[in-house]
Write a structure and sequence with these properties.
By secondary structure, the chain is of the alpha+beta class. It is built from four helices and nine strands; from the N terminus they run ααβααββββββββ. Helices cover 18% and strands 34% of the residues. A five-stranded mixed beta sheet has the order 2-9-8-4-6, with no helix packed on it. The protein has a four-stranded antiparallel beta sheet with strand order 1-3-7-5, with no helix packed on it. Strand 8 and strand 9 form a beta hairpin. The protein is globular and about 45 Å long.
């Protein structure tokens, strides 16, 4: 019975911000497993209805993502119902999808650095200043530029980059977070680093 409840909660949240996509109104307080386990937990539509900042993504963004994942015209038609051909301009990468999370994989602990570009939309206080707070284990470096986002109006957008460097991981998966905080809203994005390969 989770699907009708989740759909109803999503419709409720969407009624407050009809043009914004809010991917999950779940509470991390009830789900303390590793970051990959997010998506299962207690719904909190009251908090999700007023998030402060949102990471918007349009249909075209997801098409670029799917093209980058190797989807062809036949597979894209199954998803979109439209005849779409992937090209160099529509071939995106997973790290450029404007999604409120960040994941870096490393093969057998090899050092890797990845830079993500994200855009957020202010749906909170019209005039606000968000400061970046990052947390993570020592083997993961996280840098945010700029680390302060000043907003002067509702609906204003700001773009920032997150650079994640991963050294030799001591375990299969580790995580940190980026929290944009303006003193009223705390907008949290998980940052996950994980090892893949035969020795993982």
């Amino acid at each position: 019975m989770a699907c009708p409840h989740a759909s109803g909660a999503a419709a409720y949240v969407k009624s407050f911000n009809p043009t914004c996509f809010i991917p999950t109104p779940m509470s991390p307080k009830t789900n303390t497993d590793l970051e990959f386990a997010y998506g299962a937990g207690q719904l909190n539509p009251l908090e999700a209805a007023n998030p402060g900042l949102v990471y918007d993504a349009e249909e075209a963004d997801y098409i670029k993502f799917l093209c980058g994942q190797g989807y062809n015209s036949t597979k894209l038609y199954l998803v979109t119902g439209e005849n779409i051909t992937c090209s160099a301009t529509t071939n995106g990468t997973v790290w450029h999808l404007n999604y409120p999370s960040f994941a870096v994989s490393t093969k057998n602990g090899t050092e890797v650095t990845r830079t993500f570009t994200r855009t957020v939309t202010n749906v909170g206080s019209p005039t606000s200043t968000y400061k970046a707070n990052v947390a993570g284990p020592p083997e993961v470096s996280i840098q945010v530029e700029p680390d302060v986002l000043p907003f002067n109006s509702f609906g204003e957008t700001k773009t920032f980059t997150v650079t994640v460097g991963v050294g030799g991981l001591s375990k299969f998966v580790t995580s940190g977070s980026l929290v944009w905080d303006d003193g009223v809203y705390k907008v949290r994005s998980p940052i996950v680093a994980y090892v893949y390969g035969s020795d993982a």
